[in-house]
Amino acid sequence: MFSSKTVVLGLTGLLLAGCGSSSSDGGDRSTSTSRTLNLPNAVAATSYVFRAEINTLSGDITYQAKQLPEWASIDPATGEITGNPEADDVSAKVPVSIQATNGKQTVTLSGSLQVEHTAAYLPTAARDFYSQDFEGNKRGLRNDLSGGELKGEVQFVQTHSVAPANNFERNQVDETQSKYMPRITALRDALLLFVPQPGLNPTTVDVEVSLHGEPLMTLAMAHPNALPESDVTGSREVQYSTQAWSIRLPWDTIRNGMSLRFVADRDSDTSVFGDLPAGNIDIGEASQIVFQSIRLGMLTEPGQENGHYTLRDPIMAATDYFQTMPVSRLVMGSYADAVLDRVIIRSGVIYDKEADGASQAEGGVYSGDMRENVAKSQVSVGINMANFGYTSNHMNQSHPHVFKQITNHHAWGMYQNGRVSHGLSGGNGIGTLYATWGNEASHEWGHAYGLGHYPGQGLTEDGRWAVHHADSGWGYIAHRDRMRANLFGVDESGAYNFKRDAMSGGSDGGPFSVYTHYTGYSARIIQNDVARLPVPDTSFPSGYKKWNTTTGQYENFSSSHPAPVEVGVPVATILGGYDPDGTAAVIYPVFHGNYGNVFELPKPDLSAGGDLCWVEVSNAEGNKKQVSVASDRHNASSVNQLHFNLHADFRPTSASLLCRREGNIQTLTQTSFDGSIPDLPPVGIVGQDIGYQQLRAREIAEIEVSLMALDATQFAVMNGELATLVASYTDTELRDELSTEAWQRLEQLKEQDEATREIAVILEQARRANVTVSETRSRLLRALTENGLIDSTDDLVPSGDVIRGNNLFFDSNLDEDGYVALTPLPQDLASTPRWTMDLKGRIHPTATPWECLTPVNGRLGLTLCQADNANQRWQYNEENQQLRNEGSGRCLDYAHHNTTLITYGCTGSWNQTWSGVSVSHNRLLSLLDGALLAEVYETLLTN
């Protein structure tokens, strides 16, 4: 158990005489004097202690506070001011006034102090990405503010870091001088950044948010050292900016008419402000995209693949992909698996599994008549059209795009050359995919937004717009509170290794995403494509709404398309194909979806003359619906397809297709259903009023389970997965949604983190104030013991064991190339290097415990330990004695051909077995990162 005791940062203050005043009536009467009180600054989340020495008073002195912050108190006997300011107490000026008296003389001491951000004492060693421009030169900052003395650059980070306005500026003479970035997306939360002009180092920055001139809220911005960390992995840390103040703006504040006022050092006499007026903030439309996904078997069963991400985990898929899409709301709908034993193609030919066994054609990744006519046209386009309110169409795949919807299918078909799966194709509201994660999904969906291959490449000789670069934008992974870098990391020469756009070869999404980050160039095209279309909403007269960027609100969209009567409800989608000029027709089994639109469908007028075709649908309760479909071909080259939604609760049990020709009614086909509704995944919805509620509810439940599994009586740390989840949510969210016991356990873990931050603050403050080594050592030891990080100085020397296998041991004396060597095991192990594993799974040499075993270029090296680097975490299986890397999933392997230690796929072979892996409960090893741990050791153990 850890105490919440904190560390003394201020010791004794000396009262310095200053300009003051005194009063006395003479004789034995009391006198009063006013003096200036000089106080050291306080630091949030760290104990404050200060005592004024008053050498002008003698005898018994008593003290009282005339003015103190709420977090502080004074000892009436000693005058010692103590307290624990919190993050909310940070201020550029806090007035303080105390009074001391011995009964005859009274001294009033008045002054002020600053409460600084904890992060101000946690400097980062990371590189500042934004400080350099495309050419590698120092980047000049814009001034986006006016109306006051405060100057600086403002950015809004959603999927991309963008300026308040002018994000699209084309220079056709010199495209290297152009700007291709998306606008700010309305009704979507944003990370607001403010980078002050050089020379200004405020203690606090606040932002006042107004809408149409009416104040909404005032928010305290986080210190630049507290900017959300980047997702860059590796030993060389990179941050988007080391100078940017930040705060997350709520989704409903991001709308046209928003204005901002930035105030530096609000409480001080030197406070300055600057305005960003609404006219200088260019906010684009609030938009929405809907995805549907289905597994489809055509004359065969569909497969079940791990890559069917949108079906296996639609909530995470929606949340993750949303972070790459400049839209306000994203919906991830699902359909139950569909198996079609009879299919019809656009020529009117029907294939029957029992009679024919297969298509008459051959199939391939990009070929096959069932791929084109069934999967793409009748299923994907058919589902789209059913949600647009159109009951029939041709099979040529062209169709109106009423709102933005992409229907994905994982399709298998039986062809003359066997069972074939289709994928790697997208566009026109259709996704024909092997996997709905990775670059395949990001790329093929990109085609649906009008993106071609290598977009923008031909605009410049260097092709910069097709890949990421210094000005292509970072993103904000809001559900993880992490910055999304547009680079892999830093190469050995110190240059950035940039990622590629999804349409230009693609790059992995990083440790927190399975999707590719589009460049700003592509994101702008995506944003415009989605924003041009309305959003279905039954509360508007036309059934559709569209954002007005002048008024900053949704308005009715005049539409000639059918108006939905219900939006986003479970549906039974009836699909099929028929030839109105002949008799060929098929109605497929019901397609069950969890998110669709329902319409007042057209009914056949059986009293009118002329030819008619319609579908008659019945259920077990005897209810019937008649739905009119076209009685002529929509296109002479193709038979028709039919498609419409019924509310799932109708539970259809049969559907018949009838046509009246020259007065004679003929039933072309009839299909029976069982009337059941299969289990479906949840609908994934993210953005606007829903935010990330679905994922949060699920993950906080997972956090609860993990916390309750910890032994509350033992020292414990969060593993990498739990730490990531906990860091994703605010204390308020966690406190409100965890059980009382789980929250108490989490508080204990958070106290450990606070204790480690205090250690860093002590060392940084000592460095800035030139505190002596002995005094720093004293403060540090007191902090370590009072916070329970060590019981005694003996804890500073970790114990360990020799890690060995195949008569070789891990040698922490690196070889000439800088890698961990495998050295023959001696008989006497007394001087053999020892290693130990901390509770996070990091492996340290006991000689240099601030270093961790890290994969480097396929081999193993030693790098400074990092708090959240999965590549430094190992899982040891005591049964087979394997050491598996958490980041790569590979195991430590003895390459016997050259006697080197490498990482390799886990095989369970003899050359992957290692003994001597001991686990240390040393708290410092588990809690401190390498740089801080090294400084602690240097301070305490170096003369």
TrEMBL record:
Annotated InterPro entries = Cadherin-like_sf, Dictomallein, Ig-like_fold, Peptidase_M66_dom, Ricin_B-like_lectins, Ricin_B_lectin, TagA_dom
Q: How is the cofactor bound?
A: Binds 1 zinc ion per subunit.
Q: Which UniProt keywords apply?
A: Hydrolase, Lectin, Metal-binding, Metalloprotease, Protease, Zinc
Lineage runs: Bacteria, Pseudomonadati, Pseudomonadota, Gammaproteobacteria, Pseudomonadales
Q: Which cofactor does it need?
A: Zn(2+)
Tree of life domain: Bacteria
GO cellular component term of the entry, any: membrane
Give the protein's recorded name: Ricin-type beta-trefoil lectin protein
Question: Is this entry keyworded Nucleotidyltransferase?
Answer: no
Does the record bear Zinc in its keywords? yes
Q: Which GO terms describe its biological process?
A: proteolysis
| UniProt: Zn(2+) binding residues | 443, 447, 453
List the GO molecular function terms: calcium ion binding; carbohydrate binding; metalloendopeptidase activity
Occurrences of domain Peptidase M66 (ranges): 288-554
Note the PANTHER family from the entry: DICTOMALLEIN-1-RELATED, PTHR39540
- Which residues participate directly in catalysis? 444
Q: Gene3D superfamilies per the record?
A: 2.80.10.50, Immunoglobulins (2.60.40.10)
Which Pfam families does the entry mention? He_PIG (PF05345), Peptidase_M66 (PF10462), Ricin_B_lectin (PF00652), TagA (PF12561)
